Amino acid sequence: MPANLTPQYKAAEAKFKAARSVEDKKTALEEMMATIPKHKGTEKMRAELKRRMARLRQEEESRTAKHGHVVKVEPEGAAQIVLLGPPNCGKSSLLAALTHAEPAIADYPFTTTRPQPGMMPFEDVQVQLVDLPPITNEHMDPWMPNIVRVADAALLLVDPTSTAVPEDVEEVRERLAAVRSPLVGALPDEVDYRDCPLETLMVITKVDRAREEDLKVLEEFYAGTFPILRISVTTHLGLEPLKVAIWRHLGLVRVYAKPPGKPVDRHDPFVLPLGFTVHDLAERIHRELAETLAFARVWGGKLDGQRVARDFELRDRDVVELHF
User: Considering just the CA atoms, what is the radius of gyration of the chain in Å?
Assistant: First the structure.
């Protein structure tokens, strides 16, 4: 569905791009959030605006903190995914299986005490996974909500062999909802502007050790709340489908630049949110290029080098040749 952005939104976006101070950027972002059309075609863009606002607030907190320290994880790759769950649900094992990270893995609770990032390869892009400490009814690290708010999505891990399930999973959801970071399967059309909902995939771990009837009960309990996948790190069951599901859930597109008269570069794609345009791609390359962009030619889908306007919305794996 096209975004159909209004002139008011585009004017606020221009203010944001021209802003230099954190305060001016926040003001412009608030205008963008107030004027962006609210429908299915803009849900990913609205989520991106909330993450930008959360990152600006985190940057502000980092600058003003005078005592203690601020915990943050610099985003890398195409997107940042946080791994959430109760103690011993398999977060660290999954991080080790999907990335080159070497987190501490043990059978006792709270092995993970600090954020542990790792890069997960998926086809021609890298996605950052961040293992976070477990959350319980009694404990959640005070810095954790800031990490969760700026993430692009989450994996909520569930151990079907645990005697505490699903109560332990509900405690995770309740603690995060209480700090205005609710975990959702899909972004709602309307949401309190103070909330920062995070799109979440539920991952049932250790399925090689679980009874089929327990797995079905869990899936029935959370059906309609989250997309659900089964995995086993021990047997590698479901790990490749999980990578595909993560990429689809992110709502991103890969775009390959083709200089006029030269072959396309397919080794380092530009990664953009769904709904971004040819003009957005030019701006991602360099702001001055966007100002002088005349048109583009696009290869992909049914297009075979057709000329398109600056506001043409790009799709995954499009090849784009910019003309100035």
Answer: 21
Do 37 and 50 contact (CB within 8 A), yes or no? Answer: no
Contacts with 283 (C-beta within 8 Å, 6 or more apart), sequence order: 17, 289, 290
Cis omega before residue 117 (within 30°)? no
- Mark whether 84 and 219 lie in a shared domain: yes
pLDDT tens track for 59-91: 666 665 555 556 788 889 999 999 999 999 999
Percent of the chain residues past pLDDT 70, beyond the cut: 91
C-alpha angle 61-62-66 in degrees, rounded to nearest 5: 90
Residue identified by tokens 């995914």 is 81
Q: Could you read off the pLDDT of 154-204 as tens digits, one per residue?
A: 999 999 999 999 999 999 999 999 999 999 998 877 767 678 899 999 999
223 with 104, same domain: the answer is yes
The parent domain of residue 56 ranges over: 7-64
Is 87 in the same domain as 217? yes
Q: How far is CA 125 from CA 24, 186, 244, in A?
A: 33, 23, 12
Residue 53, classed as helix, strand or coil, is: helix
Residue 1 inside a domain? The answer is no
Q: Do 318 and 230 share a structural domain?
A: no
Residue 107 has pLDDT above 70, yes or no: no
Amino acid at 267: H
Tell whether pTM > 0.85: no
**196 and 224, same domain (yes or no):** yes
